[in-house]
Every structure is written in structure tokens, then in C-alpha cells.
Specification:
By secondary structure, the chain is of the alpha+beta class. 18% of the residues lie in helices and 30% in strands. Strands 1, 2, 3, 4, 5, 6, 7, 8 and 9 form a nine-stranded antiparallel sheet that branches. Helix 4 packs across helix 5. It starts with a strand and ends in an 8-residue tail after the last strand. It binds a DNA duplex (13 and 13 nucleotides) through strand 4, strand 5 and helix 5.
DNA sequence: GGAGCGATGTCCT
DNA sequence: GGACATCGCTCCG
């Protein structure tokens, strides 16, 4: 990735909406069996703590959501609807809960492996949606929960390759039943790789 | 192409 | 026991 830079921890030590916006256009990299699978992040959602009934952290710290309360820049993976995994990155300073759900990416490298894991070769459907993205990258709670994305030795990292995202759109979050009116979903307008 | 719905495991009440 | 930050299939038009 040429002049790309690994995003530093301070990037994540901000409010979830700031980090969610900032992650658009960045490159998500996942090392699976020695191969790097990468994609450009095109859709994210911000989840706060107290005051955000839709957030997992809202109920307080539990064994499941503990990563959200820890230091910024760590992977939080949870299981939903009996069959899907979802990838988040913790933000806010250590002790303050918050996270960003990574909902979709434009696949860049490792397309064949992603297609095999997903069971489809349709590039637009490889990682359009949080469940699909995790399936394409082989991400599970047991395997990746708690990983530090700012460590060069990690199997999940996020890079800035200096590509400017296009126009950023803001909408309400998807699939939730509480706080449905808050505009905390961010996406790159016109991208063919977003969900919904 | 869009609405409806079943699948299915884990966590918290 | 019920809710759940989803997905892909069916059925209808």
C-alpha cells in the first residue's frame, strides 16, 4: 500500500460519530492464513454509551461488550440473529464506552478468497452489510474480538492510503428499534458497495 | 423490484 | 422467555 499509514490510537480516542465519519475511505485489512484481504470502508454507524438506547453499551459493562469500555482502537465482534457476526472498533478514551460498526466496504484485494467465503462472486455483494463483511473476511468473536487494530502485528488493521472519500451522506441507523431517528449512519454517496 | 418471513445462537431480564 | 446493530429466499406484481 505504498504511502499508506496505519491509523494511530489517537484517531480512535474521539466520539463515535467523529470516528465513524473519519473511517470512511480508509482501508480495512485482514490477514487470513497469511493472505491479506483488504477493502475500502464505505459505510459506518456510530454507537454511543449512556444516552444511546440502541447501543450495546447502554446497559452498562458486561462480559460481552467489555471491549467497548476499554481503550480505543480495539475490535468488538458480536453475534446477531443466530447466524451473523458484526465488526466494530472501540472509540473514546479508556473507560468511556463507544464504538463504530463497520457496515460495508469496497473489496480491493483477496477477492477470490472473499468470494469463496461468501459463496458468491458478485463483487457488490461481497461485503455490503455487516454480516456479509464479516463472512467475507472470516471474522468471528472467538477469533478476533479484542484485537488491537493499531498494532502492525495484528490480523485486523486499518490504514489511511490518502484517498479522499467522496461526498459523505448521513442517515438514520439501520435495523434498530430504539433511537431510530438519530442520524448516526454515514456512507460514501454514490458508492455501489453500501448496504440497503 | 419490493414486501414478507424464517432461520438460528447468545445475552440479559 | 424475548429481543436481537441480518441475510437470502419466496411470492407477488
Amino acid at each position: 500500500m505504498g504511502k499508506a499509514k496505519l491509523l494511530p490510537r489517537r484517531f480512535y480516542a474521539e466520539a463515535p460519530d467523529v470516528v465513524a465519519r473519519g473511517l470512511l475511505g480508509k482501508v480495512l485489512a485482514r490477514r487470513l492464513d497469511g493472505e491479506w484481504l483488504t477493502g475500502r470502508i464505505v459505510e459506518t454507524e456510530a454507537y454511543f454509551g449512556k444516552d444511546d438506547p440502541a447501543a450495546h453499551a447502554y446497559v452498562g459493562k458486561t462480559e460481552r461488550n467489555a471491549v467497548l469500555f476499554g481503550p480505543p482502537g480495539h475490535v468488538y465482534v458480536y453475534f446477531i440473529y443466530g447466524m451473523h457476526w458484526c465488526l466494530n472498533v472501540s472509540c473514546e478514551p479508556d473507560g468511556t464506552p463507544g464504538g463504530v460498526l463497520i457496515r460495508a466496504m469496497e473489496p480491493l484485494e483477496g477477492l477470490e478468497t472473499m468470494a469463496r467465503l461468501r459463496g458468491t462472486a458478485n463483487r457488490k455483494l461481497l461485503a455490503a452489510g455487516p454480516g456479509r463483511l464479516c463472512q467475507a473476511l472470516g471474522i468471528t468473536r472467538k477469533g478476533q474480538n479484542g484485537i488491537d487494530v493499531t498494532d502492525r502485528g495484528s490480523d485486523v488493521q486499518i490504514w489511511d492510503d490518502r484517498t479522499k472519500p467522496g461526498r459523505i451522506m448521513t442517515t438514520p441507523r439501520i435495523g434498530i428499534k430504539k433511537a431510530v431517528d438519530r442520524p448516526h449512519r454515514y456512507l460514501i454517496a454514490g458508492s455501489g458497495y453500501v448496504s440497503g
